[in-house]
Amino acid sequence: MILEPIIQQPVIDTERFQLRPLQVSDAGLIALHTGDMRVASMTSSIPHPLPPGTTEAFISRCQSQERSEDAWAIDATKSGGAEVLGVVGLKHVDTDACELGYWVAPQFWNSGIASEAVQALLEANPRNCRAFFATVFQGNAASARVLTNCGFKYLGDAEGYCLSRDATLPTWTYSLRRD
Length: 179
What we know:
Elements: E1 12-13, E2 18-21, H1 27-34, H2 37-40, H3 54-63, E3 69-75, E4 86-94, E5 97-104, H4 113-124, E6 131-137, H5 141-149, E7 153-162, E8 167-177
Parallel strand pairs: 5-6
Antiparallel strand pairs: 1-2, 2-3, 3-4, 4-5, 6-8, 7-8
Helix pairs in contact: 1-3
């Protein structure tokens, strides 16, 4: 029997789903979704093809008491949906600043899931952040819309490395202040 570590992260309810801390049992669905090049290519840190153990290592890092990132599964079982629609997370940048990241499985794209998850996480603000930052690869207009729909403001263009594409790509950078 595998015991789940106790994670100091809240469960965040929305109308359609819950944002809940990652569980070891999420590994299969997360690997299935992040193994899709359409998902991996829109993130900076997901490799493609997905090496064995990558997902389990990610979950383990997110469950560690010394973690630098909090991550939540977008879990729609309360409304009869899938256990993992995607993942939304906050990387700890400073004591009152976080970098937001998220992905949603392709079969749930264009359904408002990402906007609802990001908005719920921002409203809950579990790390009491005063500033949030996010970066999307240029060409990913859907993710840019999620950010602007949730109140983020465009800061400018930059570049970021995409592990799955093994390339440095142009990005759009956004911020949101809660003063």
